[in-house]
Amino acid sequence: MAHVADYKKKQVEDFVKLLNEYPIIGAINMENMPTPQLQKMRTTLRQDVVLRVGKRRLIKLAIEEAKKTKPGLEKLEEHLEGMPGLLFTKENPFKLSKILRQNKSAAPAKAGQKAPKDVWVKAGPTSFAPGPILSELGQIGLKAGVEGGKVAIKQDTCVVKEGEKFKPNVAAMLTRLGIEPMEIGLDLVAIYENGTIFTKSVLNVDDVQFMKNLQQAHSWAFNLSVEAGYIMKDNIEYLLGKAHGRARSLALEANVYADGIMPDILAKATMQMQSLKSIIGGE
Question: Taking each helix axis from N to C terminus, what angle separates 6-21 and 56-66, rounded to the nearest 10 degrees?
Answer without folding.
Answer: 50
